[in-house]
């Protein structure tokens, strides 16, 4: 099952919301706890001073006359509980004279020892396994000590209650937030759905660009990439349609000629005429076979796909092999074919494609060079590149035709040499696949000069 962007966004946004809410709740809890601690500490101070004010006269009299009260609580534990019943507070107090006589205490306070070992200020202590916050107050002479204590659990519980109450509204808003995110993301992704619907309804040959109107900026790059793909497909389809039309047209002529020669051979009575017609049939078959081979080569060398295999290619070794393979043709035309190159010269590329390129160049040079002429293959290595040159002593190529010769099925002069018109188109495509450049000039002998520059290393793109 394919993952849903809508569900992912919902999960991510809700997780972030809960995380932020949790952090906010923790910070709110800590702040509330601090504020309550300061408030309750101030109340302990007020209670201690109130007790001292209420009992000061009696306690000083007892100290003056050397006695002490008979006991009896001034403020009962029940009264304190009732006063703070809303938050469940628990407060206890003690009044000691001379540090060893318990004059007054609440019911919840200890009777055996003081609530704190400090004579003044705040402290915390475990009393009956529960944490208490204690405030101690002494008179100026230190003869009277008053201790007021409060359970710390009360503060923590109250801080928790306040935090939960302040954040309780979010528990109601969370489902509404989830629904809002779900609907909002769905509406945001509608332009993408419209693009998908438009693509799915298109016919295979409708490759016009998609409209980018009302497409979000984040999705525009995707639509632009699809439009770019449509453009490349349309170019490829147009190229193949043109190629097929040209190929059909070019094959139609030799096939018609083959049929004519075959019919003449069938009707011929003179053996010489019959032999001549059959020779023309064989020549026509050879030309058609060569054209079909070139067509297959063009189909395999697709620039969109790239080279089938990249390896280290010895350009000098390939040139030597091609010249040997073409030696029979050059011998029959009495053409001097030479090689001017170092022993070895390596480049990155496809050996098969480089062999096809060099064979087409040398074969063309031999075809267009008159008998007794010369064809030279020259290789010059440089720092980052290697230059391949094929020069002949033929008629050359006029400047106005130097770009046209790379077009498919273009032929300059069929009277000079026959061919399919695809050889130089194949050469151009192989040069492009090897990230090189090709130029046509004039050789020292007045013929054509093809100069190709190959990089030693091919650059790769992701």
Characterize this entry briefly.
Helices cover 53% and strands 17% of the residues.
Overall description:
By secondary structure, this protein is α+β, with helices and mostly antiparallel strands. About 5% of the residues have low confidence. The strands form three sheets. Strands 2-1-5-4-3 form a five-stranded antiparallel β-sheet. A five-stranded mixed β-sheet has the order 7-9-10-12-11. The protein is built from ten helices and twelve strands. 23% of the residues are buried.
Secondary structure elements and pairings:
Blueprint: H1 5-65, H2 77-83, E1 91-97, E2 101-105, E3 121-127, E4 130-138, E5 144-151, H3 152-188, H4 190-201, H5 217-267, H6 271-300, E6 311-314, H7 315-325, H8 327-332, E7 336-340, E8 346-349, H9 351-368, E9 374-381, E10 385-392, H10 423-433, E11 437-442, E12 448-455
Parallel strand pairs: 7-9
Antiparallel strand pairs: 1-2, 1-5, 3-4, 4-5, 6-8, 9-10, 10-12, 11-12
* Poorly predicted sequence stretches spanning 5 or more consecutive residues: 68-88
Compute the gyration radius: what is it?
51 Å
Q: Could you tell me the mean pLDDT?
A: 79
Total number of beta strands:
12
How are strands sequenced across the largest beta sheet?
Answer: 2-1-5-4-3
Profile the largest sheet: 5 strands, antiparallel
| Oligomeric composition of the shown chains | single chain
**Overall outline:** rod-shaped
Helix proportion range? 40-55%
Would you tell me the structural class of the helices and strands?
Answer: alpha+beta
Count every helix, treating DSSP H or I runs of 4 or more residues as helices.
10
- The first-level CATH class of the largest domain is given as Alpha Beta
End-to-end C-alpha gap: 28 Å
- Please provide the ordered H/E string of secondary-structure elements: HHEEEEEHHHHEHHEEHEEHEE
Number of domains: 3
The CATH topology of the largest domain turns out to be Beta-Lactamase
Query: Beta-strand level of the residues, as a percent range?
Result: 15-25%
Just name the CATH architecture of the largest domain: 2-Layer Sandwich
